[in-house]
Amino acid sequence: NDQLLTKFCYFGVKKYKYKFNSYWKIINITMSTHKRTAVLIDDNESSHKFFLRSVENLSIDLKVYRNADAAMKFLNDNKPSLLFLNIILPDKNGLTFLSELRKLPLHAKTPVIMLTSNDYSQDRTVASELGALDFIVKPMSMRTINSIMLDYIK
User: Fold this and answer.
1) pLDDT single digits (tens) 47-57
2) Residues 18, 25 contacting (CB under 8 angstroms)
3) Phi-psi label, residue 102: left if phi above 0, alpha if psi -120 to 50, beta otherwise
């Protein structure tokens, strides 16, 4: 049972104190003018607000897209540190989008976290085969989002 117990900042370094199964771990995140970029592709407005609120203290520039086409225009020339991708999108299935994204040399290894409100084993299997790092079922907690950001954005 992990939990964020304290968050404090001094001399330009944010420190997060976590408790992992009764062990303490302090995570330092150096604040800088260079923000890491994460991308959220999800058509749900509530998800947008939730993710934006979740990362507001993490020095992460979150780009939010409502559909696959708009996201692909950005991703053709940009490589985010992390990509959150909903499986159900209005213009394209998220797994199809991920398959197309993996064909681009720039995104062959881009870290991707799949999001869905339906937990189907075949979706998990396909996502894993396409190199998705994790598969998160909605709704999720802010702590889950923060933990993923801290784990995958270096």
Assistant:
1) 999 999 888 87
2) yes
3) alpha
Longest Cα pair distance anywhere in the chain, in angstroms? 48
Which tens digit of pLDDT belongs to each residue from 91-124?
A: 999 999 999 999 999 999 999 999 988 878 888 8
What's the pLDDT at 19?
Answer: 45
Nearest alpha-carbon partner for 85 in 142, 131, 150, 16: 131
pTM, two decimal places = 0.76
Short-list 10, 8, 32, 20, CA closest to 153:
32
End-to-end CA distance of the chain: 23
Rounded Cα distance between 37 and 69, Å, is 19
**How many Cβ atoms sit within 10 Å of the Cβ of residue 35?**
15
Residue 133: count of CB within 10 angstroms of its CB: 16
- Token match 């991308």: residue? 39
Residues of the chain with pLDDT under 50: 1-33
d(CA 99, CA 130): 6
